[in-house]
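Side project, low priority. Logging it here so it doesn't get lost.
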Amino acid sequence: MSDKYVFGYGSLVNCATHSYEPASVASLAGWQREWRHVEGRTVAFLTISQRLDAKIDGLVTRVPDDDWEALDVREHSYDRTAASDLEHALPNGADIQFYHAPADKHAAASEPHPILLSYLDVVVQGFLEHFGEAGVARFFATTSGWDAPLFDDRLNPVYTRAQRLGPNETALVDHHVAALPLKRMSA
């Protein structure tokens, strides 16, 4: 039996949101990251959809105790899919899967279902740690759905796995957000 691994491309890139070890960088070809409103969630989250010319960065981490059921709870509203076209440093034969919301389970983000700034902060913090500023820029460039509303909950986070950002991390997020067509909402 081979070890089980998950490829994360959003909040799972931030190791402060979980205790899955070890974590190593990877990239997935043929998929694009996008902001969507997913069934069963009140706000927009990241998912991925197939796009042949796309490639995204992320992390591969071991599923704790090979327990997919526990991870399925964290990733509710998503389907789990075997990963192919994944570049990684794991041994051949590793069982690697990822979560995504099929087209019939999501819709465009909207005012009732905005992107949470606290969630975006977590994702960017993870990309900065593992991929540097160039990786953060790639995250923004390889993600669609930026025409969604952005709910600024940074001071009073709604996202349950929110993390405190340092001043440089906050400035980096704000720099990229300022260049996007996001409509900012506040409480």
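Brief comment: The first strand starts at residue 4 and ends at 8.
Revisit when time allows.
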